[in-house]
């Protein structure tokens, strides 16, 4: 038994394979082939940086068949640094508000041009641009830009407060998460057992603001979690809850800070048993609040009476 239709698609897949091979060859040639065009391969500017740090700016390029005429660094359109290997002085800098080049920090050649900025302040935030130009006759220009935000970044993890060690069914767990003063404001998120807390369990985030001496607006954020423990599963089974609070700044992974703690939700049944143990069966304490505890006390008392008689 042969299946003629099965032999049919063969030529099509062959030609497809050929086409793909050709495409691959083309790509390969393009990549390894001679590249004579001026090319700015990378620009690296910290997207956000603490005011106390130094900002390293990196620019790297490939000149192809051209000669490097100059590399210029700009902040918000104002030139603050120039490297011009053909015309001495080969390095030059210009005053621009918020920009202070660290002494001896510039490092430029035919491939890279790096500078480091120090004494950052609120005016140092902005757009930084690296512009590379080839020499005569074309003076071809290429550039890339990136934004940098100077802020006051938190040094500590957010603080969780108000959480007790144990809760019972029908209790309300109230937890505050507070972040340290920062600029820009931190965005807080609560996680319960690694799942984001639903919106309805959260109070709106509070951002208090003050201005520090350097003119930065500083924000303290607070997010309150209110969890009413009414899930039916807590009637029969005690459970550990892991509460985690995460503080994010502009969504930058390296600036993420978090705190977590664990609390126990005592099942209605277990909390009754514990209560009975704690009170040694007296049933007299005002702390014997739950109906289940009373029930347990009652049954144990009855049993005691039975064994006596
Ligand atoms: C560099 O190569 C390009 C073509 O890739 C050509 O147009 C240009 O004239 C060349 N420039 C120099 C300086 O050789
Ligand atoms: C920098 O920020 C400005 C406004 O804040 C925006 O218009 C611009 O597109 C940003 N530039 C880059 C390169 O991200
Ligand atoms: C939690 O924050 C609220 C609102 O700011 C405040 O009223 C309450 O006292 C705080 N509770 C704790 C335990 O920090
Ligand atoms: C949450 O995730 C972390 C890391 O993935 C893990 O170590 C931890 O056990 C998880 N906690 C819970 C309650 O699932
Ligand atoms: C319960 O019994 C323990 C010893 O078994 C004792 O230390 C404790 O004080 C008793 N508690 C009460 C409330 O009587």
Going across the biggest sheet, name each strand in turn: 2-10-9-4-5-6
Point out poorly predicted stretches: 4-11, 29-34, 276-309
- The count of helical stretches stands at 5
Q: Regarding CATH, which class of the largest domain?
A: Mainly Beta
The whole-number mean of residue pLDDT values reads 82
Q: What is the assigned CATH homologous superfamily of the largest domain? A: Immunoglobulins
**Termini Cα gap:** 91 Å
- Work out the strand percent: 35-45%
**Principal-axis shape:** elongated
- Strands, total number: 19
Can you give the helix content as a percent range? Answer: 10-25%
What's the number of domains? 2
What's the order of the H and E elements? HHEEEEEEEEEEEEEEEEEHEEHH
**Main β sheet profile:** 6 strands, mixed
Bound molecules: 2-acetamido-2-deoxy-beta-D-glucopyranose
Which CATH architecture of the largest domain is right? Answer: Sandwich
Computed Rg: 34 Å
Report the CATH topology name of the largest domain.
Immunoglobulin-like
Structural class: alpha+beta
Organism: Drosophila mojavensis
Domain Ig-like: 34-149
Signal peptide: 1-37
Keywords: Disulfide bond, Signal
Write out key terms for the chains shown.
about 300 residues, alpha+beta, Immunoglobulin-like, 6-stranded mixed beta sheet, 5-stranded mixed beta sheet, about 20% helix, elongated, binds 2-acetamido-2-deoxy-beta-D-glucopyranose
């Amino acid at each position: 038994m042969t299946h003629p239709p099965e032999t049919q698609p063969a030529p099509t897949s062959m030609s497809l394979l050929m086409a793909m091979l050709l495409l691959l060859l083309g790509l390969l040639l393009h990549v390894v082939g001679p590249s004579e065009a001026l090319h700015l391969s990378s620009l690296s500017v910290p997207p956000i940086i603490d005011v106390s740090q130094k900002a390293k700016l990196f620019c790297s390029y490939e000149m192809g068949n051209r000669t490097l005429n100059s590399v210029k660094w700009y902040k918000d359109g104002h030139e603050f640094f120039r490297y011009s290997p053909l015309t001495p002085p080969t390095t030059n800098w210009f005053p621009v508000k918020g920009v202070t080049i660290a002494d001896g920090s510039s490092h430029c050649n035919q491939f890279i041009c790096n500078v480091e900025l120090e004494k950052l302040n609120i005016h140092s935030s902005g757009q930084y641009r690296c512009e590379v130009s080839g020499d005569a006759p074309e003076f071809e220009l290429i550039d890339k830009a990136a934004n940098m935000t100077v802020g006051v970044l938190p040094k500590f993890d957010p603080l969780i407060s108000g959480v007790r060690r144990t809760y019972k069914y029908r209790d309300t767990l109230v937890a505050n998460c507070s972040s340290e003063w920062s600029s820009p404001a931190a965005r807080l998120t609560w996680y319960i057992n690694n799942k984001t807390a639903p919106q309805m369990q959260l109070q709106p985030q509070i951002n208090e603001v003050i201005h520090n001496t350097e003119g930065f607006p500083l924000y303290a954020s607070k997010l309150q979690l209110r969890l009413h423990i009414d899930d039916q599963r807590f009637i029969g089974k005690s459970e550990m809850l892991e509460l985690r609070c995460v503080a994010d700044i502009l969504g930058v992974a390296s600036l993420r800070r978090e705190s977590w703690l664990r609390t126990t939700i005592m099942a209605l049944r277990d909390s009754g048993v514990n209560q009975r143990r704690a009170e040694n069966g007296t049933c007299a304490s005002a702390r014997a609040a739950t109906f289940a505890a009373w029930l347990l006390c009652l049954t144990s008392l009855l049993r005691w009476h039975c064994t006596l008689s």
